[in-house]
Write a structure and sequence with these properties.
Length: 312
């Protein structure tokens, strides 16, 4: 559990972060979203004391972080940034090993952890361990950056616009990979973005900030259905809102009895993906199967459309 209690940062008499109070559950992804200058990155950096608060406290698992030596705190928290921050003259393996080596891990333990993470992030050890950052694609650099942040098995990972420099295709894959890995490891993630689509896709809960203030802090479905004010409403946008709803549900949630023609859809695919598949193939319904290929029933455009409507 992370508690941000009355957290404030003042520069030149202006509160760029103003009296923020949040509780972040362990094992979840919390996304801080807002426009440029909203204070979201400043808030994130106060958690690991890269920026010292003017007022308020950060408490992690009952411990006030201001009472800890800053270097010890930062070594216990993973930190990944937009441009990855990889050391250019170090190999992939050595970059990933940075924090475990600082912590004095045994070399065999470090090597095993590097290999484990490279497998987790789908980077073949034999192929990539000896490469340098400039020899990697943007997506590969991003994966190495996150692997390095997770190397010492931190319970908390901070991410500041980690996918901002990636092209849309690689970015979508990186987001999906992060979500899958987080579900496997149980790492608590606090992530900053300016992209509401990304916040909705990744966040168990979303914190919306504007001019240093926390406008709303809630699950994505609640923010979509009941935005706290006009700023939050505008940030979500009207045209894309039905599609946001569809990213939150799976095809398995709207399966109905019966059969349908054509290629089946996976029950664990999102309703958004199902809608796209049906529209592209020109079908009004499709069969649905589970992960083993067992037929579960069918899904229809009509049922998906009902789920896209705003809850009353």
């Amino acid at each position: 559990m992370i508690e941000l209690s009355h957290l404030t940062k003042v520069y030149g008499g202006i509160a760029v972060v103003n009296d923020i109070q949040m509780e972040i559950e362990s094992g979840t992804i919390t996304v801080i979203v807002g426009t440029s200058g909203s204070g979201k990155s400043t808030l994130l950096r106060m958690v690991n004391r890269l920026i010292e608060p003017t007022d308020g406290r950060v408490v992690i698992d009952g411990s006030d972080v201001s009472k800890m030596p800053a270097y010890e705190l930062r070594r216990s928290i993973g930190y990944a940034i937009q441009n990855h921050g990889l050391f250019p003259h170090w190999t992939v393996a050595r970059n990933i090993a940075t924090v475990p080596m600082l912590l004095g891990w045994d070399r065999k333990k470090v090597a095993a952890r590097v290999e484990e993470l490279m497998e987790l992030f789908q980077l073949d050890h034999a192929q990539f361990a000896g490469r340098y950052p400039h020899e990697l694609s943007g997506g590969q650099q991003q994966r190495v950056g996150v692997a390095r942040a997770m190397a010492a098995k931190p319970a908390l990972l901070l991410m500041d616009e980690p996918f901002g420099a990636l092209d849309p295709i690689i970015r979508g894959k990186a987001q999906a990979d992060l979500k899958a890995i987080q579900r496997r490891t149980g790492t608590t993630i606090l992530l900053v973005t300016h992209d509401m689509d990304e916040a909705i896709h990744l966040g168990d809960r979303i914190a919306v900030m504007d001019a240093g203030h926390l406008k709303q802090y809630a699950p994505a479905a609640e923010i979509l259905a009941r935005p706290a004010d006009t700023f939050v409403d505008d940030l979500i946008g009207t045209a894309d809102r039905p599609f946001h709803y569809l990213t939150l549900g799976t095809i398995g949630s709207v399966v109905e009895p019966g059969e349908a023609d054509g290629s089946p859809l996976a029950a664990n695919a999102t309703l958004y993906e199902g809608l796209g598949s049906l529209l592209w193939s020109g079908r009004k319904m499709a069969p649905v199967v589970d992960a083993t290929g067992k037929a579960l029933g069918r899904v229809s455009l009509e049922n998906i459309a009902v789920r896209a409507a705003r809850p009353q």
